[in-house]
Design brief:
This protein is mainly alpha-helical and 264 residues long. The chain is built from eight helices and two strands, in the order H-H-H-H-E-E-H-H-H-H. It has a two-stranded antiparallel ribbon. Strand 1 and strand 2 form a beta hairpin. Helix 1 runs parallel beside helix 4, helix 1 packs across helix 7 and helix 4 packs parallel to helix 7. The radius of gyration is 39 Å and the shape is elongated.
Length: 264
């Protein structure tokens, strides 16, 4: 055996292998898929962030519109309340109160037209508030367009406090003329008062639990105002119903003493 056999030469070392590199144990197809997945994840996150910001901005804008709606609803409710009080106390002021209520309701309707109500009803915390407010606005529209015009004419004919004709005349003939000229309002008044009762019921059926405080308060105040209004005009209904019977029986059969007795 020669010298140096079986020995390692000085300065020469066997190669050592460290731990395998990560890429060496992963299929090449997987190596290319990871960056693509990361890119898709970032894209989805970006889309979700944009959608979230859009929803927050939309909710903020809608909340502003809800607040504007509530402002108009409260103003219209106050005008309607003033109108109902004026039926007995100051009939000459009725047109002004009614015009104010209609103006506020028109502005409320304009705000509602800018809100996608059908889509937002699916959002519980916002949809219920908008639906409740829209219902209140619709019912006040019924009050101003269907009920109030009849009650205005009725208040010209009849004193809502004394339940007597305001200007009956001093003779049976003048009484008959007054009634003949007022046949339409005499026939319409009971139905208008019943319609007021329906509006009152519709508002009272709005579920205010869980609504925004401003919405809840506005609707509950409107409900109280309508309760008071209906209480004021309910006694008038019987008087107009009695007059209706007289008209149905024939104005020519009116007896002055009987008419006075029925109206007192």
């Amino acid at each position: 055996m020669g010298v140096g056999h079986g020995r390692t030469r000085p300065g020469h070392h066997h190669a050592r292998f460290g731990p395998p590199q990560e890429g060496l144990l992963i299929p090449s197809s997987e190596i290319g898929a990871r960056p693509a997945r990361r890119a898709r994840t970032r894209a989805v996150a970006l889309v979700l962030a944009v959608v979230l910001l859009a929803l927050l901005a939309f909710a903020a804008l809608t909340t502003v519109r809800v607040n504007a709606l509530i402002g108009h609803l409260e103003a219209a409710s106050a005008a309607a309340e003033d109108y109902m009080m004026a039926l007995a106390e100051d009939p000459a002021a009725l047109p002004g109160h009614l015009d104010r209520a209609r103006s506020e309701l028109d502005q409320a309707e304009a705000e509602l037209a800018e809100v996608p109500l059908a889509q937002l009803t699916a959002v519980p915390w916002l949809g219920r508030n908008l639906t409740a407010t829209a219902t209140a606005v619709d019912q006040l529209q019924v009050l101003t367009e269907e009920v109030a015009p009849v009650l205005s004419d009725a208040a010209v004919l009849l004193d809502f406090e004394t339940l007597r004709l305001r200007d009956p005349g001093s003779t049976v003939g003048e009484w008959r003329t007054t009634i003949e000229d007022s046949v339409d309002v005499i026939r319409a008044a009971p139905g208008a008062i019943d319609r007021l009762g329906e509006v009152r019921t519709a508002i009272s059926e709005i579920d205010t639990d869980g609504l925004l405080p401003a919405v809840r308060d506005a609707i509950e105040e409107l409900e109280l105002a309508l309760d008071d209004a209906y209480g004021r005009v309910a006694p008038v209904r019987k008087t107009f119903s009695d007059l209706q019977e007289r008209v149905r029986d024939g104005i020519e059969n009116f007896d002055l003493l009987d008419l006075i007795r029925n109206l007192v």
